[in-house]
Predict the 3D structure of the following.
Amino acid sequence: MTATNAWTPRIVGDGSEHRDDVPDGAATDGIETVQLLDTDATLLRHPSYSPQLSLDQVREAYRTMFLARRLDAEGTNLQRQGQLALWAPAIGQEAAQIGAISALRATDMVYPSYRELSMAMHRGLDPLAVFQIMRGITHATWDVAATHFGLFAFVVGAQTLQATGYAMGVTMDGADEVVLVCLGDGATSEGHVNEALNFAAVFNAPVIFLVQNNQYAISVPTAGQFRGAPAARAAGFGMPGVRVDGNDLFAVNAVVAEAAERARSGGGPTLVEAMTYRIGAHTTADDPTRYRSREEEQLWAGRDPLARTERWLREQGTPDEYFAALGAEADVLAADVRARVLALAPEPITGLYEHVLAEPSAALVEEREQLERYLADLEGR
Amino acid sequence: MVQLSMAKAITAGLTAAMARNEKVVTIGQDIGRLGGVFRITDGLQERFGARRVMDSPLAEAGIVGTALGMAQRGYVPVCEIQFDGFVFPAFDQIINQASRLRFRSQGQVTAPIVIRLPYGGNVGSIEHHGESPEAYFTPTPGLRIFTPSTPADAYELIQQAIESPDPVIVLEPKRLYHSLKGEVDLDAPPSGELDRARVVRLGTEVTLIGYGPMVSTLLNAAKVLADEGHSAEVVDLRSIAPVDWATVEASARKTGRVVVAHEAPRTSGVGAELAARIQERCFFALEAPVLRVAGLDMPYPPSRVETDYVPSVDKVLQTVDRALAY
């Protein structure tokens, strides 16, 4: 998983002097947070991890992060304007997502949670697919086989077992693939997740559990969620657990790349706890002012993954024109998606009968016919 | 034709399916070296290897959830849940995940898994080992639920379940595992008709409808009725989701009287749906209300009194008498 580095790393120190710059919660439990790019956009030396992304790859990652954030804002706007039922922003978590997925091959299956817009875009999905869900047009409908990007999962944690089973299948096939599954800090309390971690370890499944620890499960902070941090709990399941600065594109990428390499070579699962922050609300139905402080939000705003990556790119000589062009591209994309969202209308409900069973039962056929007659009668009035 | 117990017939069906399709795998607790607590997977690990016959950690959601993942990878997993009362930790993976993957993805992702679930009472066991939980599953669109009543049927249904592109729960009547023997044609291919009920005894005056372990009770009741000069038809549903309404309605119209039997509690059971549909569809053909013989509306009792809970031949006969009296 080494990429050609077209840039000259500006490495200072051995990393140890940055322990005060780790996310909240990390400093108190004694678990190291791997960091390669500090909040001043300075690359650090780490004894085990080094940056794996070329300058071009960082630019491409930044582009996806930037576009996703622009669409994310559009999602909240559209919900506020009554055009979406709900929006779940991921602003602030882009580096955790893109850092991780850019460490994988395109054929490595990803099981998202429901906040992974940027990952979907990285895999080439039309972002409209996510907006369709939030507008109430479809549940979770895209070509999983072609994109190797699984369905959004709204029952928190349930996808981790399916990801583990898929990875067990990879092993049975003897395939050169790994699986990445996304979950949050809250999900780690779910029974399914604990079963998944255990099955993954027992079957030595090539799966990476990416815990995006965004500090809150809706309103409950991690202190009310667990006393044993996810990264530490991994050992109890018999797998490596690594905590990483989730707002550090380089660190997340390097840590996931290492986990993927281990999984690919038969080393089994890894839990990666990416320390990040949900800058926005849990969803548009949420009100974070009820449970977190302005000071805390400002603290994390200073660790913003996009600002940090942008600063590094500028220091590497990326010209203003690049950022200006990207801004223009984002505006065009947002306008395009907005226009297409507004045009989205549902298909008639009767078509949904096609996917209840592989072949509809006689009772389903009959019910569908009754409904069609009823709807036609209504139409005729 | 060979003479097999229901347990051996299921083993034979599983073996045939695994031999036919190398993508068929099994996962469950103690199914490997032990062959399962009921020995249904006896010899399978020896024949097909530990890769295809997997002993799982003790976690039902884990069994069904990882099976769903394997299915998404192209495998056809057959899960064994050890006992009826232990299926509920897997409830979310069955109800929220397996049943609707096809629907929510508009056919992009499917869940061709099989969940084998030994069920039913009168086995003299302790709590949580004699349950009939089918009514928690039958209203769930996207699930198929099969339950055999004979060894030959079990041999066929398990293979059909494995071949089905839909998620299937196979409810196995555990008290018949070793007590019921019957002729099985091991060369008979699965018929392909997934949700066909079967008229297992022809009659004219009353229709007795049941499934799984109740079918032999109903057949015994029909024999007594015949001795008493009454002709009862017996319908074995075989698939309780979906139900073969054509066969059910034809029999109800023919006899005009219907008694439905199941071990699960009466309230909101499969019998409630049968009664509702039959009166909706066959009202003018009915001579009596559709009556139900069911388990009691209490949690499953201690085993020393379970024979008063599980519908008996006498209880069926008493209910048939009521139906005939209209």
